[in-house]
């Protein structure tokens, strides 16, 4: 994803500059070709050698440095760039870029870049809220710059408020989204993930082993590919992806209501492991044990996927999942038909590297007349293959 991508990281004179070192390291580890551009003031906070060691490239500070290949032709770097991130961005540099001032290596290069540009402001709350800074940020936004909303918390000056540099993993995710081809731009995608939990009494519930990893991978991949993503998540052992509108639910009924209210999405991927049964009675008090065994009466839950299939629009693509322990493909094909899905991702939990909790999966994609066995892939890769197929189905329908 970031492999071989040319990323320009602009670092300016804010105390948060030290965090840019971690970000540079994360980007290099992900295979990106990172060049750091610093303002003169930034070098007072962190030494260029830190970035040079991490990136393997000379850190660019002065436009008129003659001992360097880009000194005469700094525009060449701008041309090669796949994305630019200025993090941290001071009020001064934001003001300069917003007003077309370019008097050093960082600002001249940013001005020459035609790729996606992201600005991550970091400063004192009062400075950030200054109407002039706000107007400059709005102007940058108007001209297509992405502004990474500053985080709120304790600032270096001791104040508590907005102005902190967002966490490095958020900035990483923004860059990844910036360099990923947006073939799902303008498409709304609804994804369900995780396990539902059906209460028995105030202490106990019935649930399953789903971690939510596969559904979250689909939601994240769709977000990176430019879709507008909503995730309806049950119990999950992973954090929902960033830049995804997430709705948390517990029970199958809550998931059904949350999905039904958003069922107008262009694409729906139902990766959640929904309970098929719930206790008929939810006891108000904790059940006390008695001598001998016990019987819990269960009733069926709503079949969300079947409901969606029954109400499907012609321009909608619905993908279900099937997790089986026997007769995988026969059961999955039957499910595809019964639930009126366009695509079904079938996996057997009997195979090593597939199923609950792990980061990999072995899935067979089924459509009405196709059967595509995928090899052992990471859940991220599997998610992309599912979205590729969905895109193909949409294209075949002229969408
Ligand atoms: N599903 C759903 N609502 C339910 C049960 C399942 O939406 N109440 C969805 C799952 O999200 C998944 C698909 O249906 O996309 C298949 O789920 P699975 O439990 O494997 O299939 P079932 O239809 O429940 O069939 P069976 O229990 O017979 O395997």
Kindly describe this structure.
This protein has 399 residues and is of the alpha/beta class. The chain folds into two domains: 6-179, 3-Layer(aba) Sandwich (Rossmann fold), CATH 3.40.50; 188-396, Rossmann fold (3-Layer(aba) Sandwich), CATH 3.40.50. 34% of the residues lie in helices and 23% in strands. It has 14 helices and 21 strands. Strands 12-11-8-13-16-17-19-20 form an eight-stranded mixed beta sheet, sandwiched between helices. It has a five-stranded parallel beta sheet with strand order 2-1-3-4-5, sandwiched between helices. A hairpin with a 5-residue loop joins strand 9 (198-199) and strand 10 (205-206). It starts with 5 loop residues before the first strand and ends with a helix. Bound molecules: cytidine-5'-triphosphate. Cytidine-5'-triphosphate is lined by residues 252, 270, 272, 274, 276, 301, 303-305, 320-323, 335. Residues 252, 270, 272, 274, 276, 301, 303-305, 320-323, 335 line the site of cytidine-5'-triphosphate.
